[in-house]
């Protein structure tokens, strides 16, 4: 049974999806990449699919990866983005509960050791992926703008991230314009 802190520890921590070493994941036998949507693939509620993201997906598909969006956001927002990106999806996933992760693996006939979960939140993406035995990759959020509930969770997330850093988690270099990983910005903006 994992320790309390191991439950939250991602296997990797990178600045963005573009920093994920797809070749290495492929060599490790990974075949399915589950991706959170908001602030992982695109800024929160952004309907556009950037060309750089399309190129990243095409590169992964050329290596043999399947992709599936797994989002806690509602169906219409996720469906629109999924249609535009050409990716299958699971909306209203209720992460970190395991059901959506398990459903995605069933759809693609993938085992946990073949599956990767990529997301910007410890309490939903990483915790849910870890509960299911997936390889988890935490990315920095793309933008500061996000749902108010996520902003509140970022406060607790910052505390946990600081503890994980004390246990060996190395934070990636932040790129120009990337959001800070802190709910304290939200609190400061509200005062």
UniProtKB/TrEMBL annotation:
GO CC annotation: cytoplasm
Entry superkingdom: Bacteria
Any one GO MF annotation of this record: phosphatidylglycerophosphatase activity
UniProt cross-references to InterPro entries, sorted A to Z: HAD-like_sf, HAD-SF_hydro_IA, HAD-SF_hydro_IIIA, HAD_sf, PGPP1/Gep4
Region (Disordered), start-end ranges: 172-191
SUPFAM superfamilies noted in UniProt: HAD-like
Biased composition annotated in UniProt, kind: Basic and acidic residues: 182-191
Protein name: YqeG family HAD IIIA-type phosphatase
Lineage: Bacteria, Bacillati, Bacillota, Bacilli, Bacillales
